[in-house]
Design a protein that fits this description.
This protein has about 160 residues and is α/β, with parallel strands linked by helices. The longest helix has 17 residues. The N and C termini lie far apart (about 45 Å). A five-stranded parallel β-sheet has the order 3-2-1-4-5, with helices on both faces. The protein has one domain: Rossmann fold (3-Layer(aba) Sandwich). Bound molecules: 4'-phosphopantetheine (PNS).
């Protein structure tokens, strides 16, 4: 069975992430959405909250699991016996950062391959950071994130003003 890992901060999950998960779930036997700490980013939701939000969003998928891990991605992958990382690419600006991470992960574990999926054009401008900004300043986030988590983001963003 081919298990792929879709890692990220998911703070919070967006419709762009959900699109990648949906397409990856059709391609691989199993997809593990993995919430990891990105030391460069300040979070809005705790890791546990992010996992809970994603679980709610993907509950209809039979072959998608949601987990979190504190540490190196390649160590988690060894534990799960997976060699496949899925990453979404939105624009050229993502490329350099993703290229660096893919090479670093491959250096840490040469068995690991990163598969890149191009975002759908309609989500190419979307990021968790921009969703947070819009929410914090009272803008409408409908259509940017899954319906079932809008309330949670609006509520949490009020504590960030
Ligand atoms: O959604 P993001 O913030 O672009 O995801 C980045 C993430 C969390 C996948 C990356 O920071 C990560 O892999 N963190 C775990 C630590 C690790 O394995 N680093 C080695 C690759 S440089």
């Amino acid at each position: 069975m081919r298990t792929s890992i879709y890692p990220g901060s998911f703070d919070p999950i967006t419709n762009g992430h959900l699109d990648i998960i949906t397409r990856a779930a059709k391609t691989f036997d199993e997809v593990i959405v993995l919430v990891l700490v990105n030391p460069d980013k300040k979070g809005m939701f705790s890791i546990e909250e992010r996992v809970e939000l994603i679980k709610r969003v993907v509950k209809g998928f039979k072959n998608v699991k949601v987990k979190s891990y504190s540490g190196l991605l390649v160590n988690f992958m060894k534990k799960e016996n997976s060699q496949i990382i899925i990453k979404g690419l939105r624009a050229m600006s993502d490329f350099e950062y993703e290229f660096q991470m893919a090479l670093m992960n491959n250096k840490l574990d040469p068995n690991v391959e990163t598969f890149f999926m191009m975002t759908r054009a309609e989500y190419s401008y979307l990021s968790s950071s921009s969703v947070k900004q819009v929410a914090i300043f009272g803008g409408c986030i409908k259509g940017l994130v899954p319906e079932e988590i809008i309330k949670d983001i609006v509520k949490k963003s009020k504590t960030f003003k």
